[in-house]
Amino acid sequence: MxxxxxxxxxxxxxxxxxxxxxxxxxxxxxxxxxxxxxxxxGKGDGPQAPQLAKKPADLxxxxxxxxxxxxQKVFETIAGLDMPDGHGSREMPIxxxxxxxxxxxxxxxxxxAMKASDEASRRIAGLVGYVQSIQAAP
Length: 138
Ligand code: HEC
Known about the structure:
Blueprint: H1 3-12, H2 16-38, H3 62-66, H4 71-79, H5 85-88, H6 95-104, H7 110-133
Bound molecules: heme C.
Heme C binds next to α2, α3, α4, α5 and α7.
């Protein structure tokens, strides 16, 4: 198990209250960071979509596409660890890097970097939870 998947497993087991807060943060991040391409609805119809070489995925159909909701895969796609082709061309930003950089700022302390990495994982887990919450009924 990678450290990230261990963390994700922990987060998925977290208390309902924590999960609610993570989901709320996930929705806020989604509306700000993902909706420009994927659309507020997640259906891939955001305002930037027409300018992209590759159509943003319809994120409400992830469960249908994979047969079950692939939380680990979605986490890795968002973090930038597991890139499908469209992401490989980096049309979609590597949010793992964005969140860590945003959090760590100009600090060069290892402790700050580790805290930033935890925080980035938490935000990505919130996004995964939010994407899971908008899945179309099969
Ligand atoms: C600049 C445009 C852009 C932004 C912003 C963006 N994406 Fe994407 N995303 C894409 C494109 C294009 C694809 C399709 C890539 C492919 O199919 O190879 C994609 C694919 C995905 C997939 C893969 C879906 C699947 O079927 O496997 C997930 C999950 C995803 N995006 C989540 C997000 C999340 C969450 C955010 C916000 C944190 C986000 N994206 C922001 C462009 C974007």
